[in-house]
Every structure is written in structure tokens, then in C-alpha cells.
Design brief:
Layout (H helix, E strand, L loop, with lengths): L20 E6 L10 H4 E6 L3 H18 L9 H26 L8 H4 L13 H23 L5 H4 L6 H21 L3 H13 L2 H15 L2 H10 L9 H14 L6 H23 L9 H28 L17 H24 L12 H14 L1 H8 L12 H12 L3 H14 L4 H11 L10
Antiparallel strand pairs: 1-2
Helix pairs in contact: 2-3, 5-8, 7-9, 7-12, 11-13, 12-13, 12-14, 13-14, 15-18, 16-17
């Protein structure tokens, strides 16, 4: 606790604590008195990270106490050996659990192997067979842990249906490199090193370690770009796309192990996910049909422009890949289908184009035409606006997320909306033609155009 006034007692441990705990153990069964409590109690403390101290407590206290024959002189030898074995298993599980909690792989070393002396490894030694059995068990257990590390792949998150950003890829390879280096450094005990080196050789451990170091090194330049993507405003993201693709091309041409189509596809998918995440935050889907008309159209068109720019730059740099290789080097092209990269982005883009059409219809509420027949033409536009007002109100009052391409709610309303106004283009064209005919000059014609088309008019989608 932070102060003595905040100290309290409990028979059970509370929720995770931030500082230290003081534990009190009673030595015997006698009643504790004010005069003798110092000799009748043991005082100890537990830090805020008990998982770090649990293996030490088991090996230095519990094992030492139970391995002393004076403490269990009346026990059968089988019982003593069984208890000792159970403690070894408990310590091994605690060490492994601690590693998982810290996000790394810890290889538990049996105490008998850890404390063995050189003479214990001789075949004539009394403990030789026990040590040999422990080492064989150790190799089996470590092999399983090492294989678990080696078979990890950064694509597992995508395969589970999530949509991680590129930070997940960089984090994975940084952790994988640190994990493999940690495993390699732990196998330093001279008695088991040769056996574990055999395990490593059979599992291509060193090759995968070199791969992780290479990939982590070449992905590091992306950290600054990713930070700018994550922290910057959406309307400034487009200027970051050219340096992003330039960096990706350099990674592809320089890294020995990342120039594989599955890896680049995964990284590009994660950048698409990041752009989509930023786009959703910028658009505010639940308010998209409720915000001011000009602002809604601007946001939708800005998002469409960024996604299209990302796709355009992908195809542009795809053709430039040979320029990033030195003379004489074998060129590896981005020969994977672009649909693998843009599958989700294309679905979002299609949905945005539909929303753009719907939002654009709202401009009819503000159309006012001048000229000799301006009042009549304005009334015609107003009449058209009244006809599809009900469909537009349905969109504005909807509770669903119009950008959620996995659901059909918006599509149902969109199709109904377009069906109600399927002759809209023809009727609007008639009004526009009449407005041009009664324009007094070029300036008046441009005013008509700007009145009806304050923003780019999107083509309706089927």
C-alpha cells in the first residue's frame, strides 16, 4: 500500500495489486502474544508481479523443504519421489505460463539438470539415469514449445475474420524476432546444448531466425509512415500514399525474405484496413444522411478519391517494380491478382458510390432556377423532389450502418429508392434542357449548370 493508513488485512488475495503485499505466516500452533509475536510470526512480501517469483518460490523453498529427508523421514520413497516430480511439473507450468503472460517463450529447465555437476553426467554416476530421463523429457517438451513458435504466421489474425492494420504486421515480426532470439539464448547450458542444437537443425530454426531478423529490419521504415496514417487527419492521407508505395517497393526489392506474394498481399490488405478504418471515422456512418448536404457529399467524395488513389498508385508502382532492382539482379514482379488486395476495399468503395448517388439527390431541395421561366422550372424540380422525399426520409431516419457491406439493410432501401426515381435522369435532363434554352447567354448557362451540379454528379449504380 502507498501509506500505512491504507493498509488492511485479508485472508485472500484481492484483484491485481499495483504495489507490494505483506504476508504473515504463523510458525506454530501456540497463541500469539504481544510479547512473543516477533518470534512466532514470519513476515514476508510479495511484489506486484508474482509470476516472476513463483518459480523461485517453488525451486528454492518448496523443493528444498520437501527434498530434505529430515522433513519426511517416515514417508515411503515412492511418495517422496512422486511429490518431487509433481513439484517439477508445477514449476514447469508456472515458467511456461509466465512466458505466455509476458508474450515470450520461456523454456523450463528441470532442477536436477540445472543443478547437475560435471561428474553427474558420467554413466557410472548414481544420478546419471535420472538426469538422462530429465533431459529426454526436456527435449520433448522444448520441441513442442519451439514448434509452436516456428509455425506462427502473421496471417492468422486475418484468417480469423478480423481486420488488423499494418501495425499488427510490424508488431508480429518484432515479437517473433525477439521470441526466437530469446529461445536461442536460453539454450546455453552446456549439457543440453548439443541435444537442442539437433532439435534446432531438424526444425530449420536458424533459417526462420534469419528470416525474422531480415523482415523486422526492413519493415522498420514503415513505422513512421504508419504513425502518420494513424494520427493524421483523413483529408491529408492522400499525400502519404506515394511515399508509402515507394517504401513498399524498396522493401520488396531489398528484403531477402519479404519478397513473397503472400506477405506483400497481407501487408497491402492491412493498409487497406487502416484506410477503411480512418474513412469510417471520417464519414461518421450513423450521421452520414443527417449532416449538412454539402458536408456529406464532400466527405463521401473525399473518401472515394483516397481509396481510388490508393488503388491507382498500386497499379502504377506495380509497373515500376523493375526500376527498384540493381543491374543484374533477378526481378520479382507483383504477379498476384489485385483482387486479393482490394477485395474488402472494393466492397466499401461500391457502397460509397451508392451513398454518393443518394446524397446527391438531396441537392434538389436547394435548386432555384432563374430566367424567364425560372419559376416554372423550379416548381418542376420541387415536384420531383416531393416524389422521392419519402425514400430519402427512409434513408435519413435509418438506424443501420450504411457502410456495413456485410448487411443488406441499406441495399434494400437503396434499390427501393432508385426504383421510385428510375426516370429521374430523363426528367431532370428535360428541366436542364429547358433552362438552357431560356438562358440569355453563356454566363446564365453556367449559372444553371452550377445550380444543378454544385458537386460532381455521380452516375447511378444498378
Amino acid at each position: 500500500t502507498e501509506s500505512i493508513s491504507a493498509m488492511f488485512t485479508s485472508l485472500k488475495t484481492s484483484a491485481p495489486w499495483k504495489t507490494k503485499l505483506m504476508c504473515v505466516l504463523k510458525k506454530g500452533v501456540l497463541r500469539i502474544t504481544m510479547q512473543d509475536f516477533r518470534t512466532q510470526l514470519w513476515l514476508g512480501e510479495v511484489s506486484g508481479h508474482p509470476m516472476e517469483h513463483m518459480p523461485l518460490l517453488i525451486s528454492e523453498v518448496l523443493v528444498s523443504v520437501l527434498s530434505n529427508s529430515l522433513n519426511h523421514g517416515g514417508w515411503p520413497r515412492v511418495v517422496s519421489e512422486d511429490i518431487h516430480r509433481q513439484l517439477e511439473q508445477l514449476r514447469s507450468k508456472v515458467v511456461t505460463l509466465r512466458g505466455r503472460a509476458e508474450g515470450r517463450t520461456l523454456l523450463p529447465l528441470p532442477l536436477c539438470v540445472e543443478r547437475a555437476q560435471p561428474q553427474d553426467m558420467l554413466p557410472r554416476s548414481v544420478v546419471y539415469r535420472a538426469l538422462l530421463y530429465s533431459i529426454e523429457t526436456l527435449v520433448i517438451q522444448w520441441s513442442g514449445q519451439i514448434w509452436t513458435v516456428l509455425k506462427r504466421d502473421s496471417s492468422m489474425v486475418l484468417q480469423q475474420g478480423d481486420h488488423p492494420g499494418p501495425s499488427a504486421e510490424l508488431h508480429f515480426w518484432a515479437c517473433q524476432r525477439g521470441n526466437l532470439l530469446g529461445v536461442h539464448s536460453q539454450v546455453g547450458w552446456s549439457r543440453v546444448r548439443s541435444v537442442c542444437m539437433l532439435v534446432f537443425a531438424q526444425s530449420t530454426f536458424f533459417l526462420l531466425l534469419l528470416q525474422a531478423e531480415d523482415i523486422d529490419l526492413y519493415l522498420r521504415p514503415l513505422r513512421r509512415l504508419i504513425s502518420c496514417f494513424e494520427e493524421g487527419s483523413f483529408n491529408k492521407l492522400e499525400m502519404l500514399l506515394p511515399p508509402l508505395f515507394h517504401t513498399l517497393c524498396l522493401i520488396w526489392s531489398r528484403s531477402q525474405y519479404y519478397c513473397r506474394p503472400p506477405r506483400m498481399v497481407l501487408l497491402l490488405q492491412e493498409f487497406c484496413n487502416l484506410l477503411i478504418e480512418k474513412a469510417f471515422a471520417y464519414l461518421i456512418p450513423e450521421e452520414l444522411f443527417k449532416m449538412e448536404l454539402e458536408e456529406g457529399v464532400e466527405r463521401v467524395q473525399m473518401t472515394i478519391g483516397v481509396l481510388r488513389s490508393f488503388k491507382r498508385l498500386f497499379h502504377t508502382h506495380r509497373q515500376r517494380i523493375p526500376q527498384y532492382y540493381r543491374s543484374g539482379e533477378t526481378v520479382k514482379q507483383w504477379d498476384f491478382p489485385s483482387t486479393l488486395v482490394f477485395h474488402r476495399a472494393d466492397q466499401v468503395l461500391d457502397r460509397l458510390l451508392m451513398i454518393e448517388v443518394c446524397v446527391w439527390h438531396g441537392f434538389l431541395e436547394k435548386v432555384e432556377l432563374g430566367g424567364s421561366r425560372g419559376k416554372i422550372l423550379s416548381e418542376m424540380v420541387f415536384s420531383m423532389n416531393e416524389e422521392f422525399h419519402d425514400g430519402w426520409r427512409t434513408l435519413r431516419e435509418s438506424k443501420y450502418d450504411p457502410l456495413d457491406y456485410t448487411k443488406e439493410d441499406f441495399l434494400v432501401d437503396y434499390r427501393r429508392f432508385m426504383e421510385q426515381n428510375r426516370d429521374f435522369d430523363q426528367r431532370l435532363g428535360t428541366v436542364l434542357n429547358l433552362a438552357f434554352q431560356h438562358s440569355k447567354g453563356l454566363e446564365s448557362a453556367f449559372k444553371v449548370t452550377l445550380t444543378l451540379y454544385p458537386n460532381h454528379r455521380p452516375d447511378p449504380l444498378p
